[in-house]
Amino acid sequence: MLELAGEYDISTRDDLNAALDRAFADAHGLLAIDLTNVTFMDAHCTGMLISAAAHRRVVAVGATGMVARVMDVLDPGQHLPRRSTRPDHRATRLG
């Protein structure tokens, strides 16, 4: 599991990309991305998560508020599956 926290925008997208790369390298099967503590995520960073789901098994968990709304607008077909609760896995934290 990759736990994200804080704000993700143009100034943090390289950190997000690096964290995704590390998490994918460590993941065996499904990668859960915990967005519970994310307070803001711009369209570009949200798109990075959606794009990752096109190539790997990924699920986003815990998105609320504006983060969930941006995901709904950018990914209405839920190519990036979303859950309200997180599975119990070892976590890698960024933020």
Can you describe this structure?
The protein is α/β, with parallel strands linked by helices and 95 residues long. The protein is 39% helix and 28% strand. The chain is built from 3 helices and 5 strands, in the order E-H-E-H-E-H-E-E. The protein has helices at 13-26, 43-55, 65-74; strands spanning 2-8, 31-41, 58-61, 82-83, 92-94. It has a 5-stranded parallel β-sheet with strand order 4-3-2-1-5. Helix 1 (13-26) links the parallel strand 1 and strand 2 (31-41). The protein starts with a strand and ends with a strand.
Topology:
Elements (H helix, E strand, L loop, with lengths): L1 E7 L4 H14 L4 E11 L1 H13 L2 E4 L3 H10 L7 E2 L8 E3 L1
Parallel strand pairs: 1-2, 1-5, 2-3, 3-4
Quick recap:
By secondary structure, the protein is α/β, with parallel strands linked by helices. About 40% of the residues lie in helices and about 30% in strands. It has a 5-stranded parallel beta sheet with strand order 4-3-2-1-5.
